[in-house]
Amino acid sequence: MPNSPLTPGIVPGRLAPDTIARNFADHSPALDGHEARVAADRCYFCHDAPCITACPTGIDIPLFIRQIATGTPEAAARTIWDQNILGGICARVCPTETLCEEACVREAAEGKPVEIGRLQRFATDMAMVEGAHPYTRAAATGKRVAVVGAGPAGLACAHRLALKGHAVTVFEKRAKAGGLNEYGIASYKAAGGFAAREVDWLLQIGGITMKTGVEMGRDVTLDQLRADFDAVFLGIGLQGVNALRAPGEEIEGVRDAVDFIADLRQATDLTRLPVGRDVVVIGGGMTAVDAAVQSKLLGAQNVTIVYRRGQQKMAASGHEQDHAAQAGVRILHNAAPVRVIGNGRVEAVEFAYTEDGPGGLKLLPETFTLKADQVFKAIGQTLAAAPQGARVDGGKIAATPARVWAGGDCAAGGEDLTVTAVAQGRDAAEAIHAQITAV
Fold this sequence. Notes:
The chain has 17 helices and 17 strands. By secondary structure, it is of the alpha/beta class. The protein folds into three domains: 33-129, Fumarate Reductase Iron-sulfur Protein, Chain B, domain 2; 144-239 and 383-436, FAD/NAD(P)-binding domain; 241-377, FAD/NAD(P)-binding domain (3-Layer(bba) Sandwich), CATH 3.50.50.60. The radius of gyration is 22 Å and the shape is globular.
């Protein structure tokens, strides 16, 4: 449940406004022109570049870096957008350290890869400043496609379909488009409202009608969409949050980390956003890190991430774990919550040490307690409700009815990354186009 501003211990304004402003400024400032050319000159321009294979969207990375090196960043941006129309946000939020940059030849040789992510940001930012959308729609085909969900998968699908001349209507349950880019990532990763600006830029292609505040199942059904449109793409994300399954998790002061991050992203004045003094975050992925770091940046004195397995099994990358540690967040491993302690509001969390063996995770008899006035659950999200006619396996959509496609976090085969969602949305658009235009 949301925390009341009057909850003892959870209060706004723990830091001075100028301190909070500095804390939430862009944590990885953009390269300037000279820095970009220097960074680009480090690329070997490999013919069989492993970085391309490591990119889920298959961007021709050596080509766009060469275009930067030769003084044509607008051409570099086009090379990026041809494969990843959300290349700007991906340059900010992609775990490049485990994707393209990990595969970089210079990383293997020197331990210092080419700064592919920052170069991608340089190119896309420069080209977006120019204003004009770089793509022109094909002639109208007369075909209509519904896209449910305006997250990365839905937006990528909608843009590619609009580019091919189809009329696209996007149905989004929230007040704004963008999905996790708008509501679910740390504010300092996409400072200055970039996620919203990129959506506005993407919609300049034309042919896309955005309808917000429309929820499938409540306002429209999949059967209705199948009847009214030539095809349907589902990019609905994962709306449910896993439960701790520990006594006391319903008391005041315990809430979902994704809701906290969404509130923070939409706040117009961070000095008015309440945060606890002693914050405990339960989970081991990017959501846990983002919630923990931002709690610290808002002024929480003690912030601890507790993960049930070992460090190597954390979904958050080593880079993100290091970032959390540098921000003053403590990370404990091999411990699972067994009880939330409090009389009406959270006061502490009891954990049991765990052992991860061949038979699975086992709770050990020894326990410990962490003081807490605020607890965030970041133990994974689930598909809130299966769409009509869809087959769900492992908590994700594994198969869909005729003329329906799915992609992004809600679909099987993804990695819960923005860049993977973009690739799935783009590829689904190509499949939709091929089917609805087949003679």
